[in-house]
């Protein structure tokens, strides 16, 4: 006797939560609600609530001044409040935001950057051949929205989310040989902020000249369009650029910034910068010589190294710049990744964690931990990349196999081909 399932029972069965049959499925089902609610919390609770640090207010005021034909570059750089630092090309791009009132404009800006981060994470999954249905998708979403860099990008309401999307698009299009489009992607970001400009070394060494047509052309065209529309475009050069070239001793995690804050000797600061610059140069040389044919590994590793070096060694490095290192961190899924060791993730904790290390009972000790952990994290990731690559090189040299690359044996060795014994062969012949 067979029983037919009633329509009500069938509907309830369809609504029944799926039960994971494998460890990966269980983790996927567990992580998705946690990841989604964490992201929603960052967007509609923490970001909407805001913070005393407000990066959006000067941007909105500049956009409003631009639309109303008023002077833009009038900031008082003697204060430590956020300043408007975008060039005329960036002003042109962000000007439409001032059509709305300040509150709605801020909410829209938060939403755009949140969507940009999610889109960038999706493209990163595709870049590394990972599916949205895999456990990697919710894990990456949860990890990203738990970091200081994503959280404070939304809370402070700045443009880093869109910069991350531009970076991932640039890398993806570069790897797909879409040179003009890759240049346009990074050119749009440079028109606003030069944060990603060091990545142009990648197409330069790969002799992909067409990238530079749009990478340079897009900001130049936007600047030419903005000049007649702005009241004081050249004040950016005379008033803002000198400030950008200075080293400030607050909200600055670069070596020179911390050196200024703690009053370190100039010789020590110069020496530290020279040592880390040498490690970066050696690492880039090894990447170019031995990994340029492994394009995905080369682009994300060399690109991440160039960016972290610019954060640490230039005049200004802020913690939430670390979002641009997401492609480097995602490279951990590659078998020859430089991120497959615990010191690399100790470094990542330093520059990504939302934890506060301010200790109320020991304020000086706590401030030192809190202010220096980003600098230590960036420094350690450079040391890790240098140590991994130099270690591989020295091992390959000792084993006289530099001509075949420097990947360790466990990555390059093929499974041995077993030759059947005479007894096994004879037994197989009898069986057949």
TrEMBL record:
Recorded topology in the membrane: Multi-pass membrane protein
Keywords on record: Cell membrane, Membrane, Transferase, Transmembrane, Transmembrane helix
Membrane-crossing segments per the record: 107-124, 130-147, 154-174, 180-202, 209-231, 268-288, 295-314, 375-394
Keyword Signal in record: no
InterPro entries given in the database record: GT87 (IPR018584)
Localization, UniProt: Cell membrane
Domain of life according to the entry: Bacteria
Family statement drawn from the similarity comment of this UniProt entry: Belongs to the glycosyltransferase 87 family.
Protein name: DUF2029 domain-containing protein
Organism: Rhodococcoides kroppenstedtii
């Amino acid at each position: 006797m067979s029983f037919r399932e009633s329509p009500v029972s069938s509907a309830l069965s369809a609504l029944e939560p799926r039960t994971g049959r494998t460890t990966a499925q269980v983790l996927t089902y567990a992580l998705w609600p946690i990841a989604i609610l964490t992201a929603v919390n960052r967007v509609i609770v923490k970001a909407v609530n805001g913070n005393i640090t407000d990066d959006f207010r000067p941007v909105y005021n500049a956009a409003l001044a631009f639309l109303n034909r008023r002077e833009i570059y009038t900031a008082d750089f003697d204060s430590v409040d956020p300043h408007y630092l975008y060039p005329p090309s960036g002003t042109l791009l962000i000007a439409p935001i001032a059509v709305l009132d300040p509150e709605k404009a801020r909410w829209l800006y938060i939403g755009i950057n949140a969507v940009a981060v999610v889109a960038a994470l999706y493209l990163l999954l595709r870049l590394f051949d990972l599916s949205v249905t895999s456990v990697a998708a919710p894990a990456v979403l949860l990890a990203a929205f738990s970091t200081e860099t994503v959280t404070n990008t939304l809370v402070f309401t700045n443009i880093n989310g869109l910069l991350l999307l531009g970076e991932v698009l640039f890398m993806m299009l570069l790897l797909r040989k879409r040179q003009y489009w890759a240049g346009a992607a990074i050119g749009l970001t440079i028109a606003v902020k030069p944060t990603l400009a060091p990545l142009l070394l990648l197409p330069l060494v790969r002799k992909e000249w067409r990238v530079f047509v749009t990478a340079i052309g897009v900001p130049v065209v936007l600047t030419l369009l903005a000049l007649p529309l702005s009241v004081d475009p050249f004040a950016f050069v005379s008033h803002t650029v000198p400030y950008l070239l200075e080293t400030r001793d607050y909200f600055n995690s670069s070596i020179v910034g911390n050196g200024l804050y703690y009053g370190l000797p100039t010789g020590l600061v110069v020496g530290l910068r020279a040592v880390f610059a040498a490690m970066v140069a050696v690492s880039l040389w090894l990447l170019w010589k031995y990994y340029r044919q492994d394009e995905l590994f080369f682009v994300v590793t060399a690109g991440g190294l160039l960016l972290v070096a610019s954060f640490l060694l230039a005049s200004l490095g802020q913690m939430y710049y670390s979002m641009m290192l997401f492609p480097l961190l995602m490279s951990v899924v590659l078998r020859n990744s430089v991120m497959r060791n615990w010191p690399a993730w100790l470094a990542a904790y330093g520059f990504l964690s939302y934890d506060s290390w301010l200790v109320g009972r020991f304020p000086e000790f706590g401030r030192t931990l809190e202010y220096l952990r980003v600098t230590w994290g960036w420094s350690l990731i450079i040391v890790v990349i240098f140590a991994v690559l130099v270690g591989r090189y020295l091992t390959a040299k000792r084993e006289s196999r530099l001509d075949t690359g420097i990947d360790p044996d466990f990555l390059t060795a093929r499974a041995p081909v077993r030759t059947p014994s005479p007894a096994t062969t004879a037994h197989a012949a009898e069986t057949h």
